[in-house]
Inverse folding.
C-alpha cells in the first residue's frame, strides 16, 4: 500500500470511527429513553423501522451514486445527514400526542439510517480501492481491521449513549454528538475528489444485474444479520432492563463491552484463521463452517433459559460465545464481498450487498419487538437459530473467489 493510499485509508477510517460512535450512542439513547417513558417493545421497535427501511433504499442507490459522483460525496453526505438527524431529534416534545412523537422519531431515524448506510458503503468501498485485487491476504487484514474497530467503537457508542442520557439528558446528549460530528467533516478536505468514481455511465437497470456470487453472499448476509438483530435490537436490552432489573449503566455498559470484544475478535480474525487454519485467505468452506457452528449458539441459550438455569449466567456466557462465532462470520463475509468484486464495480456491488444487510436488520428489528412481546426472549432466540440455519444453507452454493485482476484505484485519478 502506497503512502497516499495509506493516508486515505486512515482518513476514511477516522471519519467512519467518529460516525460509528454517534450511531451506537443514538441507538442506545433512543432505546433506553423510550423504554424509560413507558413505550412497549413493539413501539420501540417501530422507532427503528424507517432507519432500516431507508437503509435498504440507500444501499441500493448509494452504490450507483458513489460510482457516478465519487465516494467522497457519499461519505460526507452521510456525516451531514447524521448531524441533521441528531438536531431534528432534539426538537422532540413530550407534550405531543404519542402517535405524533413516534412518527417524528421515525422520520428522524430515517435520516440517520440513510446516513449510516451512505457512510458504511462509502468506507467499505474505499478500502477495496486502496488494496490491489491480487493482494487477497492484505485485503482481508485491512477489511477486518476496519470492520472490527468499527464494531468496537459502536460498543463504546452504546456506553456513551447511556452515560450521556444519565448525565446530560436526552436533548443535550444529541447536541453534544452533533457538535462532535461537525468537527469530523473537515477531514474531507484532505481526500481526493474522484475516489471511486468511474468514467463510464451506469444504467439504472444495471443495479439489478449482479454476479451469482454476490447474489448468494447477499442472501446469506440477509439471514445472518437478521439472526442477530431478532434478539439483540429490542428483546435483549428490554429483557435485561425489565426482567433482570439491570440499570441503564449496566445495560449500556454490558452491551458496550460485548460489542467491543466482538470488534476485537473481528479485527483479529485474519491472524487467528492463519494461525489455526490453512494460512490462506478465506474460501466458501470457511463461511459455511462458521455459519453452521453459529446455529447452535442461540439454541443453547434458549435451552438454558427454558431449563431454569440462572438467567444472568446464561445470557452473559451465551452472548460471549455468540459474539465470538458471529465475529468470524462477519469478518469473512466482509472480505468475500470484496474478493468477488472488480474495482470498477466495487461501489455498485458493495451497495447491493449492504442493501441485503439492511433488509436483514429490518426483518430482525420488526420481529425482535413483535416476537419478544408475544413469546419473550426465548422465542427471539429460536427465531435467530432458524435464520442462521437459512444463511448456512444458502452459503452452500457459494463458489471460491478467483481474483485475477490488479486494477486498484490509483491516487491522483479524478482529482
Amino acid at each position: 500500500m502506497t503512502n497516499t493510499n495509506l493516508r486515505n485509508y486512515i482518513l476514511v477510517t477516522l471519519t467512519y470511527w467518529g460516525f460509528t460512535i454517534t450511531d451506537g450512542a443514538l441507538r442506545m439513547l433512543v432505546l433506553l429513553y423510550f423504554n424509560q417513558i413507558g413505550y412497549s417493545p413493539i413501539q420501540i421497535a417501530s422507532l427503528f423501522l424507517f432507519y432500516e427501511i431507508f437503509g435498504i433504499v440507500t444501499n441500493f442507490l448509494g452504490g450507483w451514486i458513489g460510482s457516478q459522483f465519487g465516494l467522497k460525496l457519499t461519505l460526507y453526505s452521510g456525516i451531514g445527514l447524521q448531524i441533521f438527524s441528531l438536531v431534528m431529534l432534539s426538537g422532540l416534545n413530550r407534550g405531543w400526542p404519542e402517535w405524533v412523537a413516534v412518527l417524528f422519531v421515525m422520520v428522524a431515524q430515517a435520516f440517520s439510517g440513510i446516513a449510516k448506510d451512505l457512510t458504511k458503503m462509502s468506507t467499505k468501498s474505499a478500502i477495496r480501492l486502496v488494496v490491489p485485487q491480487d493482494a487477497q491476504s492484505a485485503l482481508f487484514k485491512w477489511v477486518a481491521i476496519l470492520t472490527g474497530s468499527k464494531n468496537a467503537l459502536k460498543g463504546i457508542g452504546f456506553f456513551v449513549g447511556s452515560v450521556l442520557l444519565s448525565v446530560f439528558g436526552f436533548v443535550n446528549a444529541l447536541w453534544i454528538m452533533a457538535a462532535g460530528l461537525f468537527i469530523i467533516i473537515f477531514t474531507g478536505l484532505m481526500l481526493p475528489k474522484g475516489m471511486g468514481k468511474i468514467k463510464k455511465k451506469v444504467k439504472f437497470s444495471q443495479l439489478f444485474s449482479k454476479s451469482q456470487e454476490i447474489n448468494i453472499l447477499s442472501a446469506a448476509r440477509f439471514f445472518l444479520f437478521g439472526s442477530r438483530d431478532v434478539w439483540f435490537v429490542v428483546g435483549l436490552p428490554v429483557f435485561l432492563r425489565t426482567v433482570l432489573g439491570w440499570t441503564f449503566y449496566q445495560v449500556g455498559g454490558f452491551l458496550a463491552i460485548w460489542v467491543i470484544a466482538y470488534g476485537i475478535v473481528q479485527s483479529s480474525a485474519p491472524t487467528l484463521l492463519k494461525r489455526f487454519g490453512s494460512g490462506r485467505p478465506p474460501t466458501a468452506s470457511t463461511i459455511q463452517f462458521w455459519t453452521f457452528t453459529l446455529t447452535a449458539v442461540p439454541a443453547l441459550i434458549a435451552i438454558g433459559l427454558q431449563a431454569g438455569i440462572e438467567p444472568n449466567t446464561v445470557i452473559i456466557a451465551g452472548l460471549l460465545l455468540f459474539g465470538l462465532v458471529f465475529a468470524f462470520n462477519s469478518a469473512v463475509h466482509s472480505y468475500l464481498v470484496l474478493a468477488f468484486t472488480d474495482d470498477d464495480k466495487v461501489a455498485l456491488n458493495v451497495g447491493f450487498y449492504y442493501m441485503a444487510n439492511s433488509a436483514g436488520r429490518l426483518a430482525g428489528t420488526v420481529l425482535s419487538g413483535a416476537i419478544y412481546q408475544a413469546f419473550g426472549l426465548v422465542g427471539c432466540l429460536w427465531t435467530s437459530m432458524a435464520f442462521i440455519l437459512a444463511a448456512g444453507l444458502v452459503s452452500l452454493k457459494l463458489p471460491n473467489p478467483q481474483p485475477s485482476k490488479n486494477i486498484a484505484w490509483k491516487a491522483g485519478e479524478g482529482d
Q: What stands out?
A: The CA atoms of residues 159 and 252 lie 5 Å apart.
